[in-house]
């Protein structure tokens, strides 16, 4: 994001005339700075300090609406950028990381207006200015809606793979350190190994690739809607092992699930759960697979064979 653009939307934010997307961009920037406890070392003369203070005071007194601490911080940032030629891009020298906790899903608006939907227990790291190439590092799972820019490819690093696009929507699942799954909802993407760049594949709509030990396995004619159903709070299980299902549910509901025997882990299940409670999901699995499910605590579940 350029200095002038940031100043423009920050001013709109303070005046309560910013759009929803513009407010989210300013909030993301402010939250990232707060999370990193970033301080900006600037040596100002007494005269400049007084000038900035007076300018902030004048902004506060002009506003009829309440002026909270965040607005004050944003106003100060604008004045620093304008008054002492402090470049906003300098704030983006260090990477910004946005992370979700277990049981949390979040939408992130990037500076280029691309959108990222982060699944539970996942994170993205990026440079706010996106200088030469728009580059994101992903841990976990995310669905991307990338704003088209032919001059600036959008690149996502995850595990040992790299996904490159110009403008499209797709899902990347890198929750397993040894496996990365990329599925395309619209457009076209290039996925390649970072270890062996010649090991690459191009995907189009409804195609999916799994990189396992750097070897791509293409699965054609996948249902891309099912692969991104989680962005709509829908859990889709397609012949999934109970072991993998448990990992999905642990992240989704922030719980711990244990199995009393190894054999049960390898049983498979197919189903779809639309915004269901954990209790309903576990009851369905219990009935479908003829299992016994016990709750040691509301967040600690034991799965065993039905006696």
TrEMBL record:
Q: Which InterPro entries match?
A: FecR, FecR_C, Ferrdict_sens_TM
Q: Which UniProt keywords apply?
A: Membrane, Transmembrane, Transmembrane helix
**Name of the protein in its database record:** FecR family protein
Where does the FecR protein domain start and stop, copy by copy?
A: 97-189
Which Pfam families does its entry note? FecR (PF04773), FecR_C (PF16344)
**What species was this sequence derived from?**
Algibacter lectus
Q: Which Gene3D superfamilies does the UniProt entry name for this protein?
A: 2.60.120.1440, 3.55.50.30
> Which residues are in the Protein FecR C-terminal domain?
235-303
Enumerate the GO terms in the molecular function aspect. sigma factor antagonist activity
């Amino acid at each position: 994001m350029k200095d002038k653009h940031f100043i423009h939307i920050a001013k709109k934010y303070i005046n309560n005339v910013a759009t929803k997307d513009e407010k989210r961009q300013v909030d993301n920037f402010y939250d990232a700075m707060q999370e990193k406890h970033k301080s900006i070392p600037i040596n100002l003369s007494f005269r400049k300090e007084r000038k900035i203070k007076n300018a902030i005071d004048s902004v506060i007194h002009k506003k009829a609406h309440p002026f909270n601490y965040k607005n004050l911080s944003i106003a100060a940032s604008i004045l620093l950028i304008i008054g002492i030629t402090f470049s906003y891009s300098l704030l983006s020298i260090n990477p910004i990381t946005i992370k979700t906790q277990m049981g949390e899903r979040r939408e992130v608006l990037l500076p280029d207006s691309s959108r990222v939907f982060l699944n539970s227990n996942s994170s993205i790291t990026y440079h706010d200015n996106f200088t030469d190439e728009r580059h994101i590092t992903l841990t976990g799972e995310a669905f991307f809606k990338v704003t088209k820019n032919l001059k600036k490819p959008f690149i996502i690093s995850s595990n040992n793979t790299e996904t490159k696009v110009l403008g499209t929507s797709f899902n990347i699942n890198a929750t397993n350190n040894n496996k990365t799954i990329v599925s395309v909802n619209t457009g076209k993407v290039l996925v390649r190994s970072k270890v062996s760049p010649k090991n690459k594949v191009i995907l189009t709509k409804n195609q999916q690739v799994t990189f396992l030990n750097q070897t791509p396995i293409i699965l054609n004619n996948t249902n891309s809607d099912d692969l991104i159903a989680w962005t709509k709070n829908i859990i889709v299980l397609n012949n999934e092992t109970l072991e993998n299902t448990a990992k999905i549910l642990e992240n989704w509901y922030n719980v711990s699930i244990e199995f009393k025997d190894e054999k049960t882990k390898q049983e498979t299940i197919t189903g779809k759960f639309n915004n269901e409670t954990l209790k309903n999901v576990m009851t369905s699995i219990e009935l479908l697979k003829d299992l016994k499910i016990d709750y040691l605590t509301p967040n600690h579940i034991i799965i065993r064979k039905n006696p």
